[in-house]
Amino acid sequence: MLKRLRVLLFETPDDPWFNMAFEEAFVRVRAAGIVKDDCLRIWRNSEAIVVGYLRNVADEVNVELARKFKVPIIRRFTGGGAVYHDLGNVNYSIVVKPEEKIEKPIDYIYSKLLSGVLIALKKLGVNPYVENINDIVVENRKVSGTAATLFWNILFLHGSLLVNANLNMLRELLKIPKNKPYTKKINPVKYRAANLNDLLKTKASMREVIEALILGYEEALKVKAYLDKPLKLELKIAEILYKGKYLRTTWNTERCSILEYKELEEEINKILSKHCTPY
Question: Which fold has domain 3-274?
């Protein structure tokens, strides 16, 4: 019997801060074992810049231009570079809680979990491949970047797929980081973005892209997908993260010490510990 894959199409495009808070919340609820099935979330943001946890905002974002265009800058809980979101992007997030230890979890994430997107793109009619470990490329153009984490004893990968995004805005708002002597050489395709619909013979609708992603992950993980809605608990945790972290300048642009969120972490862990039963 096939294992099941829970699929969430929940999104709050006009409130990208809550979208990012929910991103962390649904992962943490799965990590706590409250949700028993691995989860795929597919969602969109209105215009926003999403910065990796360890990055300096000024190094990657034209901050003054973002302010001028009123594009919010939000920090995520995973690493990697800054990405531009708008309603022409489809974001995908997959969280897996392994039943047994995986010897090379990073390799697993960037092979097994990333393969769901590659399969989806093939179904849509292109031939994707991977560069720089985490960039998905079609015809020497990057159509998706990804980031991952091993926090909370889970495997988590999320990414942003350019379907028909505003690439002019992307190029204006994001900086190409300066090369540093201690960084490994990367393929410059990382900075050559393209929309999927410009590479397809027949343009895909958002619905077709979403359906392809679900089918891609069914095939990659050998699971049966089913649509679900957020739990009240996921929304509750998201609300706590939203108010206590994702709306804060100290988190989004200053990247203060994680110790500043010690009380927030204690509150979330206390709530999760009370709900560690099947739903």
Answer: BirA Bifunctional Protein; domain 2 (3.30.930)
